[in-house]
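Bumping with the actual sequence this time:
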Amino acid sequence: MANVDVFQRHSTSWKNSLMLDYKQSKHSFYVARFISECGLKLIMEAWTVSLAASYYHKCMKSVSEKDVDPYVVATSCLYLASKNDNRPLRLRDILNVAHSTIHRDSGVLDLTEEYWSLRDSVVQAELLLLRTLEFNTTVNLPHKYMLYYLDSLRQWISPEVWSQVPIIRTSWSFLQDFFHDPSSIDHRPQHIAISVVYLTLQCYGVTIPGACDIEGKTWYEIFCKDMKKRNHLVYH
């Protein structure tokens, strides 16, 4: 389990990467990137980070950005998503990481009025979040479908190509990046998973031998009957 100084131990990898100034924008991309950065610092599972982003996008469809602080809502999304993980995090850990991610030069929050005010805001935001989710915190994420599709496709791709091309890693990165966009909650998880794998194969020029015309169907139509290909794009 993470502790109060977790961000100090996991901030090094972020120092050499692109650092966004979250105080400059409340755009959904920035907030989703904030969720992703906090999730990495908290050593959260990838699917848990995507779950938090999904909560955020769903909540903001029902709530005006003018009425809430998006980053407070995002922090409550991280907290709620962590409860669905096998390693739930303490609220104080999440608050410290969230605060230090927005305020780059700050340290661990002391138990002062600032800390308790932030804590109360996040707890209140969690109640709002639960109401907008209609108290249904279960989300059918595309991660398990993507791993199943990749495992199946592995049997059709030569071992040489599979070992040389980072298909799994790239697909996983594309999938995580897609949750930066609010439209990630508008599509079926199976469609997202197949589209991510399709994009990865297209990027590396990898074809699926013998799987182009099985019963007159493409490989992705075999996995999901209502997937179609038009203008070189896969969508429903």
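The tokens above came from a reply further down the thread. The longest helix spans residues 113-132.
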